[in-house]
Every structure is written in C-alpha cells, then in structure tokens.
Design goal:
With 443 residues, the protein is α/β, with parallel strands linked by helices. Helices cover 25% and strands 17% of the residues. It has 9 helices and 13 strands. A hairpin with a 4-residue loop joins β5 and β6. α4 packs across α9 and α6 packs parallel to α7. The chain binds 2-acetamido-2-deoxy-beta-D-glucopyranose (NAG) (4 copies). The site of one 2-acetamido-2-deoxy-beta-D-glucopyranose has 5 residues, from β8. Keywords: Golgi apparatus, Membrane, Signal-anchor, Transferase, Transmembrane, Transmembrane helix. InterPro entries: TBL, TBL_C, TBL_N.
C-alpha cells in the first residue's frame, strides 16, 4: 500500500530498540497480524471515504492563506556569509514567524499524508521557525529557487533511498515550483497513489529532479514490497536495480536511507545468509544494522564515483550528497493518536542525538570521508547533508495523526496510524533543501 511505505509501526524506545514489546519480531502473532491488517485496511478506507467534505476546512485555510509567505521561496534576504562554507549541522531553531510558510503543498501535489495543512492540522506554529547554525558568522539563507536552478542548470538531480529521500524531493519540487519557474511531472508510477519513482522537469533551466525509491539501496524483497510480510530480505552484494542502472545519468545524487535497516531484516551475500536483524526466531546470527548499512553506503558511493561505475565520465562532474538520518519521534505507542502531537521544537539540551540515529549518522560521515579519499582528484565531489541534529529537535514537524484528513472529525479514536517519521510539507524538511543549496553552491 503506497500510503504506508516505510511507515513503521515503531514504538520508539531508543534505549532498547530490539526488545521492544510492541515490535512483534520475526513471527508476528496472529492477533498482531490481524490488528495490523485491520489498521492498514481502515487507513485505506479512511483515505477513500473521508477525503471529500472540504467546507469545514475553509476557515482554517483562509486564516493560513493570509500568513503564507510566498516571497520567501524566491527571495533570499539573509546575508550570504561571504561565500565561505558553514557548518550547518549544529545549531538551534529560532522563532521566526512566517519563515517556513514557503508554499501551498496542494499546488505541488505532495503525497496526501504529508499535506498537513490540507489535512486540517489546526496548529501552525511549526511553520514559524528557522535554523540558526551555531558556527560564528554563519547564517542559513532562505531557499532561493533561482539560485538553485542556476546551480544545477542542465543537470539531473536524483534523490535515492527510502521515503525520506522522497519526502525531501517533494519538498524541493514545491520550493522550486513556488517560484516563477514552472515545472511539469514527466514520469510517475502507474498507480498515481504510489510515490516510488517520479521525475519532474524544469524546462527554463533544463533541470530534472527524480526520485528513486530503494529503501535499502541494495536489492531487497519481502516486506519492502508487501507490508504484511514479517521481514525484508536484503542482498548486500547487489544494488537495487533501477537507481544503479541509471546512476550514470545523475549529476547530483542525494542518497538518504537508514530507517529500514533498523527493522526486521535478513541480510544476504548472494545466496548465503550473513545474518539477521531483529529476527531471533530465525536461528540466524543477529548482526545488527551498522555493518549492513555501512556495506550498502560504501557500495552505493562506489557506484556513484565517476570512473568506477563505468561510462559515467561523459557527463562531467558529479556531486554525491550523503544525507544523515532524520529520526522519528514516536513518544508513545505507535498507534496512540497523540504519539507525536508536540507543537514546537525541543528546547536547547532537551534532546540529544543518540542511540541508533547517532550510529547511522556516524557511519555516513565516516563513509563520506573514506569515499572522498578514494575519489581524491577525481570528478566526484562527496558532501554530507548532516540534518540529524536539526531533525532531532523537531518532534512537531511530522504529520502525526494529520496524515489522515480531519482525523478527529468523527471523535477522538483510541488508536490510529500516525506518521511521526516524515516531515509535513511545508515543514522542517524544507530546511534540508536550504542546506543542500548551500552545499551545491559553496566549495
Ligand atoms: C492551496 O491551494 C489549493 C488549490 O489551489 C486551495 O484550494 C487552497 O485553499 C490553498 N490553501 C492555502 C492554505 O492557501
Ligand atoms: C517573508 O519571508 C521573508 C524572507 O524570508 C522575510 O524577510 C519576511 O519577514 C517574511 N514575512 C513574513 C510576514 O513573515
Ligand atoms: C560476499 O562474497 C564474496 C565472494 O564469496 C566475498 O568476496 C565478499 O567479501 C562477501 N561479502 C560480504 C559482505 O561478506
Ligand atoms: C530454530 O531452532 C529451534 C530449536 O532448535 C526450532 O524449534 C525452530 O523450528 C527453529 N526455527 C527456524 C525458523 O528454523
């Protein structure tokens, strides 16, 4: 089911990720299966049934309309920081009314479950923050569509990875589309409700933006294709076919993955089982998520290094951007309607980057350094889009219950599927693209 891809029934307890009582493990018990199936089924029904009466939303919409800041998408009013490159990875969210009201997500056709405004989310304060880098003299300029398109003129910008890669691609298309430069969708999956492979063209600058859904980056079967299956089989020796076949066409490749490695998986090298993660009853060795993740990141970057993938050289330089993990914020049971209902960022020092997120982030940074050394003098530039800290601080930026349209209209349900992983659009993920622009324009 498209609406549920990569939406894990986490009950995030960072301290004991693999012994979680509501993580059913290898063999889901029958009642849990039934509940899951029922949950997803009712989600589908909800999508089908509840998406028509828009009248009651009109007031909220028009209030928001007055506050939507359309200028911020094309005007950069913050000083550029003298062309120096900044460290954007540490900092804090500061109150900046209107700053993040960058576009109307209905107009850029985002996935319904991320269109929080349309879905009736009543609080809008989550759109009033901007990221202030900690480094002295560093500012993060507001997104500048003209500057972005100029920086990638004639190029193919590809987002490769899990649904966070897709979330960021959608944000970019909305940010660019809110400007004077029209775009058109030139490719999508056969089922319009599925957001696995998409491509948009920006003819004014000859730019294309694509999404390649490959949640493990490597070839994978099982749960990745069918959410009712208990685990994914991941073939660490083979990259996922579609993106790796088209890697040579990518001038900018933003690689964003990690979440799926934290859940039920069996890892293979060819036909040999290397080990498992969270499948104790399979009788295979638990090997955790770090080494499989590292293996796949390394292999993916190698595929993208010009000169090693074969035939890519003709297109000139390539920039590979490795995004670090954006943690989810399930604060209660995954199906509790208030599991991520916060209305503002965490305060300074209220939340640290730790646990699984810290480990995944570390692997990405280490592999980026190692790859930069391997490609030294080559035509590939490796960058890290380190968004872990800024994403960690934004428990308020997810759709939560507002992944459904008007979730509380029929009264407050006891249990429902929540999205505490992806970002509302507009929302904090737009900041990832503001940083991406700086990475692409600064040396
Ligand atoms: C967003 O755009 C849609 C379609 O054009 C429109 O119906 C809606 O009122 C807009 N919402 C806001 C908050 O501007
Ligand atoms: C709109 O965005 C611009 C650029 O970020 C900012 O300078 C201005 O203060 C914003 N206006 C409002 C009403 O928030
Ligand atoms: C997979 O098998 C090949 C050939 O047997 C071996 O060279 C390689 O190191 C193995 N990879 C892993 C991750 O174990
Ligand atoms: C794992 O081992 C136990 C004990 O030997 C056995 O009962 C069980 O069937 C095995 N499970 C699988 C999936 O092979």
């Amino acid at each position: 089911m498209g609406a549920c891809q990569a939406l894990h029934p986490h009950s995030q307890k960072p301290s004991s990720p693999s012994t979680n009582s509501s993580n059913p493990g290898y063999f889901l018990s029958k009642p849990v299966c039934a509940w899951l199936a029922c949950g997803f089924l009712s989600l589908a029904l909800l999508h089908l049934l509840c998406c028509s009466p828009a009248g009651t939303q009109q007031e909220v919409f028009s209030a928001l309309l007055q506050h939507f800041n359309t200028s911020s998408a094309s005007v950069s009013s913050v000083p550029e920081g003298g062309g120096q490159s900044c460290d954007y990875s540490e900092g804090q969210w500061v109150w900046a009314p209107g700053h993040a009201r960058r576009y109307n997500a209905t107009e850029c056709n985002v996935k319904d479950s991320e269109n929080c405004v349309r879905n009736g989310r009543p609080d809008t304060g989550y759109l009033d923050w901007r990221w202030q880098p900690a480094a002295a003299g560093c500012e993060l300029p507001a997104f500048d569509a003209a500057a972005f398109l100029a920086a990638v003129r004639g190029k193919h910008v590809a987002f490769v990875g899990d649904s966070m890669a897709r979330n960021q691609a959608e944000s970019l298309v909305c940010l660019l589309g809110a400007s004077a430069f029209p775009s058109r969708l030139v490719y999508r999956d056969a089922d319009p409700g599925v957001f696995q492979f998409r491509r948009w063209a920006f003819p004014s600058h000859g730019v294309t933006v694509s999404v390649y859904w490959a949640p493990f980056l490597a070839r994978a079967t099982g749960r990745v294709d069918d959410y009712h299956l208990p685990y994914s089989s991941v073939y660490l020796d083979t990259l996922a076919e579609r993106w790796s076949a088209e890697a040579d066409t990518m001038d900018v490749a933003v690689v964003s993955a990690g979440h799926w490695f934290l859940k039920w998986a069996m890892f293979y090298n060819g036909s040999e089982v290397l080990g498992v993660h969270m499948l104790p009853e399979s009788n295979h060795t638990e090997i955790g998520f770090v080494s499989p993740f590292r293996e796949v990141i390394r292999k993916s970057v190698d595929r993208l290094l010009i000169g090693s993938g074969g035939g890519g050289d003709a297109r000139g330089d390539r920039t590979v951007v490795l995004a670090t993990i954006s943690p989810s914020h399930f604060e209660k049971a995954w199906d509790d309607p208030t599991t991520c209902a916060r209305k503002g960022p965490y305060k300074d020092e209220e939340k640290e980057v730790d646990g699984e997120a810290a480990e995944l982030r570390r692997v990405v940074k280490e592999e980026a350094s190692a790859a930069a050394a391997r490609s030294d003098g080559g035509a590939t530039t490796i960058k890290v889009l380190d968004v872990t800290k800024l994403a960690t601080m934004r428990p308020d930026g997810h759709p939560g219950a507002y992944m459904h349209r008007d979730p509380f209209a029929p009264g407050k349900p006891e249990k429902m599927l929540n999205d505490c992983l992806h970002s509302c659009l507009p929302g904090p993920v737009d900041t990832f693209n503001e940083i991406l622009l700086q990475l692409l324009t600064k040396r």
